[in-house]
Amino acid sequence: MKRKQNKKQSAVLEGKGSRGGQDPGLGPPPAKKKPSGLYKPPTHEELQTLKETESLFRTNLIKLQITELISEVKPNSSKEASEALETFLHKLKSELSSIKTTERLKLSEGLRLLPKMIKYPLSFPPSPNIKGHFEFSPPSKIKVTGSYLLETNLKTSPNVNLTVEIPRECLQEKDYMNYRVFHKRALYLSIIAGHLIKKRKLISSLDFTYDLNYPLLPILTLTPKDSSQFTVYIHTTIPADTFPLTKLLPSKSNVRRFARPFPFGEKEEEERECDHEDLPPLPTPHYNSAILLEMGSREKHLEELYSASAVDCPSITEATLLCKTWLHQRGLDQGYGGFTGFHASMVLLYLLRQRKLNHFMSSYQVFRIFLQFLANSNWDERGISLGDRENYPSLPSIDEFHSSFPIVFIDSSGYLNLTAHTSLHQYHALRQEAGLCHALLDKSDGSFGSVFLKPVKPVLKYDALCKFDLSAGNIKGSPLFDRNSDKWEELVFDFGGWVWPGVLDEVMRVIDKGLEGRVQLISQLPVKRNKWAVTAVSPTLAGSDVTLGLIFNTERVYEPLIMGPPADSNEASTFRSFWGEKSELRRFPDGSINEAVLWTEEKGEGEKRNVPRLIIDHILKRHTHIEGVVLTHNTLDSLLSSGKGSIDTREGVSVGVVNAFIELSRELRQLKDLPLEIATVKGASPIFCHTEVHPPLPWNGKSSSKVRSLPLPLVQDHCLHPSCDVTTPTLTPCFHVVMEMEASGKWPDSPDAIDNIKTAFYLSISSSLRKQHGLITGTSKDYIDILKKGYVFRLTIFYLREVSILNDLRTPQSLSKAKGLEKDCISKPLLVSTLNGLHNQFPAYSLGTRLCKKWVCSHLLTNQIPDEAVELLVAHLFLHPGPYLVPGSSVCVLLRFFDLLLSHDWPRDPLLVDLNNQLNDETTSEIISSFSKDRERQPLMFIATPLDHTSKLTKDRPSAPVMGRLLTLAKASLNLLTNQIDSLQIGRESPDFKQIFRSPLTDYHLLIHLDESKVPRLQTGRVSSVDGHHYSHLPIVQFDPVHLYVQALESAYSNLAMFFYDKHGGSVIGVLWKQAAFKPHPFKPNGMQCRVTISKSESKLLVAPDKEVIISDMMILGDGLVRNIEVLETRPS
């Protein structure tokens, strides 16, 4: 595919020749060929496009998406903008060429050449003992390089890289020693800045920043006055043959001990007096790489990339845009050591030279190969090189680079490691993202948006963020860095005094070792690129708060025991040295005696979730003297805990209920003298899939009505608080169990007769359970309540044909009953069974679902959003996690839950939850087609599963107002919680994370305040045990006056108002009037309840609901439960 000539390519400010010559981008555009007629044969480009669409793209949609994406990510290239930029660049070249030569001074006195107002961009001045001289001369060459010429700029950060070559007369033979070349380039840029700062008509802003975020490589960044779309970066370069390449090998030392950098204002006399002559030189691999980068590397790389994109594989240009977009959306190109678009371009060049790419490949195919290559790479063990080692065997070996760098990718010179500043953990994050996205592209479920369009936010990507202050404590004097350790000094010399990248690498290695097997990935969150005015002092190089992202291995992350080596092995001393006093000898059941570390002896899951924080806190304190670590993964778990100050989230209670149910099922099957055998016994309550928000404690025969006072009110300033200290009797819920008998032709065909048969079964089963197993039961005509191990199970018998029999009658009552049976006895048990499988497969599913359901209810949406809808939304996060991995913590689940609610296009797309991988392409197409054809009649929140293609679950709920409120609350909660996590700082008070669970109450017309002593769930999940005496009477089952009161309100006034409450202990009911119902309407004799006459015309008597009467009736209906009803006058009607 031919590349179009663009006028902006003439912006290369020096050169001769044409696009195919040695200096790309200079010649006039080639003459356009005249069209040969309407019916001319298809061109090579057209044939290639057809072939791509047919063979290389799975569907036409992907082809269209790629084309549209490319057009969107490219900067706007209007003729006027291009001409304005070209004009600016030519003027800038003239200004740079006109700077006058300065006098020649000793380099140690070079700061005298600084223009007024300009501050030196390095953090330390030239040493008094430094050798060499410096004078400024105008640049010998000025060139445009980088992505602008290659047409691979992104719209998000359009830039032009301008390189100015420092003339040879400004340089000396030994300038690669002792920071001399870095001081010279800093002075050179400072003098340029001093000249340009006066050109206010040409430049609107002028700043310094660090190239590659490396503090020895400051560059100038400026914004044109008349073309603010682009940012121009001014880099320096020196002739390629200035220094011998062999002097810049990674193992070479080019900074002597006497030249140790000291920041401005820091005393150095004491250090200067030390005798360094006998100390061995320290290698400076990063320092050497920075010099190699300055030696004409940018121009050479540009030529290589230009040749590859213009001749060898034209689709590389668009593929580079795809790679850059992918990297940017994941933040992989940010911060020190980021994998930038330049690195991606060089990887594509490597793939081309390895013949993995060819001239006929599409950009999409090239991108997929790029991802696959990164995912399968092992640059940390065996690096790659663009160098021609066959023809130049004298090039240094890759092993030589591995001894100095964790990641190795060498350019064509054979000497420059392009990933010199990339850490091992950054590379692992890159490799993991590549593998994840390559797998996503293999799916046909709309993964394009996940790969290219959706930004990957750290708070959503990582299961936990770990924060600590790297500058806290005496790291230099810690065991990790002894004060006289050469490792610390090596970092000081190699990074020009900026030791923190190297220190952080060492710290992360310690954390990695401590969390071995518990995490899949540890990665540092990128720090934003520093930029400062040329008139300001360069930013401090001291460390600051560090944020690490952790992705858990959920199978092992909370294990309380670390098993060490046998006590008599050689590894035992190493184990004890690492873990210190935490390590102890333990005898295990198999008789072995091993070193081991036990973090907690508690069996509760809440305690175990503290293990990662305990490990990190201990090893940082022991090895680095850093104290104070914050981990965010269990920040909100206390909302699900069993008492004030407790972190027990009651997973054990759910397990106890399930175990009791299994035992009850076995006892039911063992019953004798039943007419029919029991076929199945299934659980149909959330407790059976471990998603009950507050699993109840077992009834233990003690009174639950003992008075306990908690003085805090529930409502303050119209804001609902999630936890309050109030004493109430606890609720004894029942868990729904569905039992099916074996098939028989003796079942009657009449619904009434079927009900009578069921009642007879209930009486027989109840009697048998009492006699054969000694269980306490309570029987009604519709169910049996069975008390087993302190839990009440409500058993319902289901006859499969009863649904069809009721549907055949076609009366409103029979249809309604059939719908209820189908939901309660077929759909719910099947859904519960499926979700229980998710709980077993994904450890974070149940706790995350409970937290999400808690959030929904805390905003008074209990009766507006079905619990099952929340469970399916969370299931979607685990079954379709792209662009992330499966979440591994409750906070991560909650944040992604908010993001799913906000990012999914509910009006246009159904949400497909592929339980058990049963949604094939054909079924998916049918669901989408049916949804699109009749969208107006479909539920607002359409959730399709293999069990429910039409979203029956959400057919009636949520309504449009509730859906709008849900999304508004989700957006506010996501923003607030994200900002709170981002603002966490060591040593400061933690923000109130529970704030997102406090619902604003000012949006309602009425607030019905309940008597807190009558709210049975007010203390749900807050009391760990019940004190009192044994009583012979049984607990009251499923008695919830608040729920019953809301049901009565909805039954009486659902046409006039909507009611909102929190079933998990809420003592306020919000009421929202339906304004349409209060419009005047004609009088009807049977429709005058709570209505008043408002006008009388000649022909009609108009009436409308009377709010005062309604409020009075609500008080009467809630007599004994309602404390008062508050009318919010400020609420708009």
Task: Describe this structure in a few short sentences.
With 1133 residues, this protein is α+β, with helices and mostly antiparallel strands. Helix content is 36%, strand content 14%.
Strand content: 5-15%
Helix percent reads 25-40%
**Ends: how far apart?**
63 Å
Unreliable spans: 1-34, 268-275, 702-727, 1021-1032
Region (Disordered): 1-43
Family: Belongs to the NRAP family.
Domain Nrap protein: 160-308, 316-454, 459-624, 636-839, 842-998, 1001-1125
Keywords: Nucleus, RNA-binding
What do you see in this structure?
- The protein is built from 31 helices and 33 strands.
- It has 1133 residues and is an alpha+beta fold.
- It has five domains: 48-74 and 314-456, Orthogonal Bundle (Poly(a)-polymerase, middle domain), CATH 1.10.1410.10; 78-264 and 278-312, Beta Polymerase, domain 2 (2-Layer Sandwich); 458-560 and 599-633, Alpha-Beta Plaits; 861-998, no CATH class; 1001-1127, Alpha-Beta Plaits (2-Layer Sandwich).
- The strands form ten sheets. It has a six-stranded mixed beta sheet, sandwiched between helices.
- Helix 23 packs antiparallel against helix 24 (812-841) and helix 25 packs across helix 27.
- 40% of the residues are buried.
- It is found in: Nucleus, Nucleolus.
- Keywords: Nucleus, RNA-binding.
- It comes from Amphimedon queenslandica.
- InterPro entries: NOL6/Upt22, Nrap_D1, Nrap_D2, Nrap_D3, Nrap_D4, Nrap_D5, Nrap_D6.
